[in-house]
Amino acid sequence: MNIIFVGAECAPWSKTGGLGDVMQALPKSLAARGHRVMCIAPRYKNYDDAWETGVRHRMRVFDSEQEVGYFHAYQDGVDYVFVDHACYHAFATEIYGGSRQDVQFRCALLTKAALEAPWVVPCGGAPYGEDNLVFVANDWHTSLLPFYLQAHYRDHGKFHFARSVLVLHNVAHQGRGPMDDLQFLEVPEHYKELFRLDDPVGGEHMNIMKAGIITAHRMVAVSHGYAWECQTQEGGWGLHAVFQEHAWKLRGVVNGIDYNEWSPTVDPHLQSDGYCNYDVDTLDKKRQCKMALQKELGLPVNADIPMLGFIGRLDYQKGVDLIRDNYDWLMSEGVQLQRAYIWHAVAWAMEQRNHDKCRGWVGFSVKMAHRITAGCDLLLMPSRFEPCGLNQLYAMAYGTVPVVHAVGGLRDTVKPFNPFEQSGTGWTFEFADSGRFRNALGDALYTYREHKDSFRALQQRGMQQDLSWEHAAELYEDVLMQAKFQW
């Protein structure tokens, strides 16, 4: 098949979370399975490894004529294509920033440029064309793609055999706005009801994701649990009834990780400053990474002190308040707590109260994320909802044991520790409650201190799993084939 991924971000060029990682890794795995794969994202700034194609293309967006350019990079068997327009450069440091209509404009422009790319962008000397073509849209930012494919192309005899798949990474964000916004999105009158949603969350409004759900030929949620949660009132965020109606085309596929990027055996971020590479057979070297992290952060260097880490943004979703509510208890337990990307005021206040036990790293640093993952003993993920989650997968690959709220992909990927059967890969807790979180943490710390063999076995089981994209790519391939041939 000719497969075209479209997303608002794509690592390593642009990334705010797991979507960027998926846009980088999944296309490579599908290309390795013999498909021709293109990955399209905005060009937010100059990328040294992406070259101007010379193609300039004009389209109508927001009731105005717009011209875009296309830049191209070929890596690991994938054509990475970047849409060039001034609106993306203006938000290079805040790719989801701006007003509602600013974001709508950028999303509509990206979607339309992506739909034109198979015809106008020469990759390897020739455009993809429309034979055996499947578009893969990601989240609401590209949910206009399935709709435009149908309303602007297939209804007019173009892309007749092309299909679309919508991947759901986080349905809490849906592209909501007043119905009047449809005048800017080139929506034919007889299609406007596809966008209308009346729910207790936002009243009557225009919902871009709803139209994408209805017009996509297939959907993928990024875990089995999340596919189910989307169909509940709590997890559907107002769209649960729409998901229930279209459940026949919804499937859950758990994300994988790219071992070229995330492996303690070859990680380049562990090759300096006292860190070191290690694997399941040399797990004792992980202590060296822990002491290097303590030194780098200015904490007392002691490999026997349990070190806990959190990597995530300040967001109600991430359950940061559960860590805050347990802060005093954690400090009394004699642990070291490292938090990356927490809101500055919260991180600063915690650090000042216990300067020898707590550090907050504010900002985005790939190197520090890798080093925290390698250096900590436990990774905390008390997320209220987590469609899939990647940090718990990275943690297990590095022998760092996760403590997670049992929702979505966290429930699917972290198996609770059973001390009697010596099974499981981490600790889980039900309900986003600070007391239940504390109980799980208490069990984890007790095992770390009093049952070191059991804790070592937990680390080893996590590292011995096959968490690669290969299996997930096979399942995605099946969904793409269904979209192509079972419609």
UniProtKB/TrEMBL annotation:
<feature type="domain" description="Starch synthase catalytic">
    <location>
        <begin position="2"/>
        <end position="244"/>
    </location>
</feature>
<keyword id="KW-0150">Chloroplast</keyword>
<comment type="pathway">
    <text>Glycan biosynthesis; starch biosynthesis.</text>
</comment>
<keyword id="KW-0035">Amyloplast</keyword>
<dbReference type="GO" id="GO:0010021">
    <property type="term" value="P:amylopectin biosynthetic process"/>
</dbReference>
<dbReference type="GO" id="GO:0009507">
    <property type="term" value="C:chloroplast"/>
</dbReference>
<dbReference type="InterPro" id="IPR001296">
    <property type="entry name" value="Glyco_trans_1"/>
</dbReference>
<dbReference type="InterPro" id="IPR011835">
    <property type="entry name" value="GS/SS"/>
</dbReference>
<keyword id="KW-0328">Glycosyltransferase</keyword>
<dbReference type="Pfam" id="PF08323">
    <property type="entry name" value="Glyco_transf_5"/>
</dbReference>
<keyword id="KW-0750">Starch biosynthesis</keyword>
<dbReference type="GO" id="GO:0009011">
    <property type="term" value="F:alpha-1,4-glucan glucosyltransferase (ADP-glucose donor) activity"/>
</dbReference>
<keyword id="KW-0809">Transit peptide</keyword>
<dbReference type="Pfam" id="PF00534">
    <property type="entry name" value="Glycos_transf_1"/>
</dbReference>
<feature type="domain" description="Glycosyl transferase family 1">
    <location>
        <begin position="370"/>
        <end position="444"/>
    </location>
</feature>
<dbReference type="InterPro" id="IPR013534">
    <property type="entry name" value="Starch_synth_cat_dom"/>
</dbReference>
<dbReference type="GO" id="GO:0019252">
    <property type="term" value="P:starch biosynthetic process"/>
</dbReference>
<keyword id="KW-0934">Plastid</keyword>
<keyword id="KW-0808">Transferase</keyword>
<dbReference type="GO" id="GO:0004373">
    <property type="term" value="F:alpha-1,4-glucan glucosyltransferase (UDP-glucose donor) activity"/>
</dbReference>
<comment type="similarity">
    <text>Belongs to the glycosyltransferase 1 family. Bacterial/plant glycogen synthase subfamily.</text>
</comment>
<dbReference type="GO" id="GO:0009501">
    <property type="term" value="C:amyloplast"/>
</dbReference>
<protein>
    <recommendedName>
        <fullName>Starch synthase, chloroplastic/amyloplastic</fullName>
        <ecNumber>2.4.1.-</ecNumber>
    </recommendedName>
</protein>
